[in-house]
Specification:
It comes from Ichthyenterobacterium magnum. Residues 26-205 form the VWFA domain. Pfam families: VWA_2 (PF13519). The N and C termini lie far apart (124 Å). The protein folds into four domains: 22-206, von Willebrand factor, type A domain (Rossmann fold); 216-293, Immunoglobulins (Immunoglobulin-like), CATH 2.60.40.10; 297-378, Immunoglobulin-like, CATH 2.60.40.10; 381-465, Sandwich (Immunoglobulin-like), CATH 2.60.40. The protein is built from seven helices and 32 strands. The strands form eight sheets. The chain has a six-stranded mixed β-sheet with strand order 5-4-1-6-7-8, with helices on both faces. Strands 9, 10, 13 and 16 form a four-stranded mixed β-sheet that branches. A four-stranded antiparallel β-sheet has the order 12-11-14-15, with no helix packed on it. By secondary structure, the protein is of the alpha+beta class.
Length: 466
């Protein structure tokens, strides 16, 4: 009997330990209820947006996720100590968070450092670790420095990860927040609307203290300045997603088990360049890093006709045939920005007709940070085709074929106006067969076929008399 009791106690303890290990570490939200949350975005208060988005985020968390809530500025105006632990981190009822947030007023100041200190010290007192997520629409207004608070706590060995979601902040207001998130082993997310806030909170709740620490960093630049970029890592040669991150003009971190991967990086600002895929390898017990430059290069595209600037459309294609750029030239040199690489440029001359209205400039080499010139000169001449009966202009259909290939290249009607009869055709140099067929009843059935030779830069006129 004694053995049975002992066995049950051991099994019970083991089961309890296993369950505790299975449960994720708590998430502790620090919520901004300062007076500025009454400000509006897209016609709605930031207070209302934040409450709805946070409620949705919380409802999507696992059922065994413990969630705590700290709020500041919700009870008094001008009080830097108006900070309260509204929901304990042992809470497992999502409704408690939702109810607290939606019933909260927004009144006071923004004591970021003191709020972070309260949240972090609670972990120390409870001897637990947690993911802390701070949501704020403002900068410190109580003379504290949240970055210093977080850095000091890390030095003391308190186990936490801090993410910060800045809601409607200006770029110059984010420096201290980015510093704090970096010191806390987390990420600063910039949200300008409800969708951005939702994306930031979702990613923050997925990147928890329970995750393996990042062992591979990614930094994206353009013209030596950091740019925000979205990064997805997949197993090499597959679509199997391993990790995602966002750089937010800083280093983004992912955890990659030893192996080879394809890193897909897409810039989110300051460039028309498309994303790039880079082969990377993660080595056991080593920190990896990849700097991605979106400097690319530029193509100065010049399109001419008989040596003069000419309006054309263009498509820049990779060697695999993917269109990555292009523009309409309007008769002027056009700058097209693309990734470094080798390209073919397909040009279509507008207005002109013939068999040489399209041209491909092949194997244009674009180097990072450089501008390469690519040009083509089309050649054309003018054919004026008119129809008369005595001194009267005759409406007729004009059809033009390339003499050698028999391919139709142009066609129109002359009508009976001096502005269209004779009708002007801009054609590539060559020999053409022209057929003219009268339209009106008084000349019905009358046709004439003849051959013309069009030369570069010259005009040939042919008037048919019925």
């Amino acid at each position: 009997m004694k053995l049975l009791i002992t066995l049950c106690c051991v099994l019970g303890f083991s089961l309890q330990s296993y369950t505790q290990q299975d449960a994720p570490s708590p998430i502790l939200f620090i919520y901004d209820a300062s007076g500025s949350m009454w400000g509006q975005l897209d016609g709605k208060t930031k207070k209302g947006i934040a409450a709805n988005v946070l409620s949705t985020t919380v409802s999507n968390l696992p059922t065994n996720q413990n969630i705590g809530l700290v709020a500041y500025g919700h009870r008094k105006k001008g009080d830097c100590n108006d900070i309260e632990f509204l929901v304990d981190i042992k809470n497992d009822d999502k409704n408690n968070i939702t109810a607290a947030v939606k019933s909260m007023n927004a009144l006071g100041k923004t004591p970021l450092a003191r709020s972070a200190g309260l949240a972090i010290n609670s972990l120390k007192e409870n001897n637990t670790k947690a993911t802390i997520i701070l949501i704020t629409d403002g900068i410190e207004s109580c003379d504290g420095n949240i970055c210093d608070v977080v850095s000091k706590a890390k030095l003391e060995g308190i186990d936490f990860k801090l993410h910060i979601v800045g809601f409607g902040l200006k770029e110059e207001e984010t420096e201290q927040l980015k510093c704090a998130a970096n010191a806390g082993g987390g990420t600063y997310y910039d949200a300008t609307n409800a969708a951005g806030l939702g994306e930031g909170l979702t990613e923050a709740t997925e990147q928890t203290i329970d995750d393996s620490e990042g062992n591979f960093s990614i930094y994206a630049t353009k013209n030596d300045e950091p740019v925000d970029a979205w990064v997805k890592v997949v197993k090499s040669g597959t679509n199997q997603e391993i990790a995602v991150t966002r750089t937010y003009r800083d280093s983004g971190w992912v955890f990659l088990p030893p192996g080879k991967y394809d890193m897909i990086v897409n810039p989110l600002e300051n460039t028309r360049i498309k994303g790039t895929t880079i082969k990377v390898e993660s080595v056991k017990d080593k920190i990896g890093h990849q700097t991605v430059s979106f400097d690319g290069g530029k193509i100065n595209l010049i399109t001419l006709n008989n040596g003069e600037g000419w309006d054309c459309t263009s498509k820049v294609k990779t060697q695999e045939g993917e269109v990555v750029g292009g523009s309409r030239t309007y008769g002027r040199p056009q700058i097209i920005e693309v990734n470094a690489g080798v390209y073919d440029i397909e040009i279509m001359g507008l207005t002109m007709k013939g068999l040489e209205t399209k041209y491909i400039i092949e194997d244009v080499v674009v180097a990072s940070g450089k501008t390469v010139e690519a040009s083509h000169n089309f050649e054309t001449g003018i054919a004026m085709i008119g129809v008369k009966s005595g001194e009267t202009l005759v409406d007729a259909v004009v059809s033009i074929k390339d003499k050698k290939s028999g391919q139709n290249v142009a066609g129109s009607r002359t009508y009976t106006s001096n502005s269209s009869n004779p009708r002007e055709f801009m054609l590539n140099p060559g020999t053409y067969e022209v057929k003219v067929s009268a339209v009106k009843k008084e000349h019905a059935g009358k046709t004439e076929t003849f051959t013309i030779e069009v030369k570069k830069g010259e005009t040939i006129t042919k008037i048919i008399t019925f």
